[in-house]
Amino acid sequence: MNFPTWMSAIQQRTESALEASLPAAEIAPARLHEAMRYAVLGGGKRVRPLLCHAAGAIFNADSRVLDAAAVAVELIHAYSLVHDDLPCMDDDVLRRGKPTCHVQFDEATALLVGDALQTQAFHTLSNRLAGIAATRQLDMLHLLAVASGSRGMAGGQAIDLAAVGQQLTIGELEFMHIHKTGALIRAAVLLGAHCGEAMPDALERLGRFANRIGLLFQVVDDILDAEASTATLGKTAGKDAAQNKPTYVNILGVSEAKNMASKLRQDAHEALAPFGESALRLHELADFIVERTF
User: Fold this and answer.
1) What is the pLDDT of residues 32-79, one digit of tens each?
2) Please, is 267 exposed, middle or buried when counting C-beta atoms within 10 Å of its C-beta (0-12, 13-18, 19+)?
3) Structural domain range at position 93
4) 3-state DSSP call for residue 98?
5) pTM as predicted
6) Cystine design at 222: which of 22, 39, 215, 248 (Cβ 3.0–4.6 Å)?
């Protein structure tokens, strides 16, 4: 199976698993459930589920267990986007080519959607996972909780908000994005590995890969924000510059940001070397993240 075929299959599989994990729109409270489904389904690259499945494949993880881990991390990601777009945060009106959740519904509903998606993620990951020891499942829940909270994604968003209008060093910018973007990407990779009972040395190696990929994703995001159109991105282009946010592009320039992306991709590939051909999909995903246009 070539990479585009594999990617499409995992995306479709994830879409079905997400749909099954969410309450039906007809169940009370219907408006909240409708908004949850609106925020999650029918859009997005599903990069985190792809990383989860690709990492799990190295250790022959059960695909049904990987579905649960992939859904959990994607629900956290979806909740973060809903909250990110609120007027009190980035105040955006477009996400994945359609009106943001608070525009389509209202701010109060969007706030509750984020809250509900976060708890739904832990509900999914706390269900019995076939073949996974309780202690390992507890480790997985802990991993996702840390990646999502003040020492991970939420903390990174707080740093991001405080950095508006500030002049950051590259080191400070990396610290912010290791938390805001990188923590959940790292969790996706490591959750996939845990589904296949990876050993500590393998987890350490994959953690190194994931750290590079997390920064790589953000560097490319900053380049696309500067160069791509709103129609291509499916969200408002040039928003970071308009809000005077520090980015890799406005600190380094486009050319140096692209050089940084190339170096991060090389580092990511090198981290996977000990896994040989079993890490093919992770190698391909590293290339996809660099070469994507949206």
Assistant:
1) 999 999 999 998 899 999 999 999 999 999 999 999 999 999 999 999
2) middle
3) 3-291
4) strand
5) 0.95
6) 248
